[in-house]
Amino acid sequence: MDANQLDLLKKIMELEFACQDLNLYLDTHPEDQKALQDYNYYSGQLAMLKQQYSQYYGPLMVFGHCQSQYPWKWVEDPWPWEIEY
After folding, report:
1. Which of 1, 12, 22, 71 has its CA 20 to 30 A from that of 58?
2. Nearest CA to 80 among 2, 10, 4?
3. pTM value?
4. 34/40 Cα distance (integer angstroms)
5. Considering its fold, how many domains does the chain have in total?
């Protein structure tokens, strides 16, 4: 895993955390317009980064979430517990 791939993966994890945190907050504060705007912004950024990652490094998720280039790339990357952060 090269430095660019690791950096992109870290950014994806940061945005996933932010989206999850805002999602939980919005469950109890559905009228908070600023939180909803932040959630929509971060989820849009997350979708773009996931698309970018999949394009350059292969799929992040399997089971129809994105297409794979030839050859099948799902098994080429290290598993999350094998990555040295």
Report:
1. 22
2. 10
3. 0.76
4. 10
5. 1
User: What is the per-residue pLDDT across 4-31, written as a single tens digit (0 to 9) for each?
Assistant: 999 999 999 999 999 999 999 999 999 9
**Distance of CA 10 to CAs 25, 35, 55, Å?**
23, 23, 17
Amino acid at position 9, single letter: L
**Residue 48 to residue 12: CA distance in whole angstroms:** 10
Domain that holds residue 16: 3-82
DSSP state of 82: G
Q: Which residue has the tokens 């129809």?
A: 64
**Which positions ≥6 away from 75 have C-beta within 8 Å?**
none
22 C-beta neighbours (distance < 10 Å), count:
21
**SS3 label, residue 42:** helix
**52 and 7 Cβ atoms separated by less than 8 Å:** no
CA distance linking residue 45 with residue 34, whole number of Å: 17
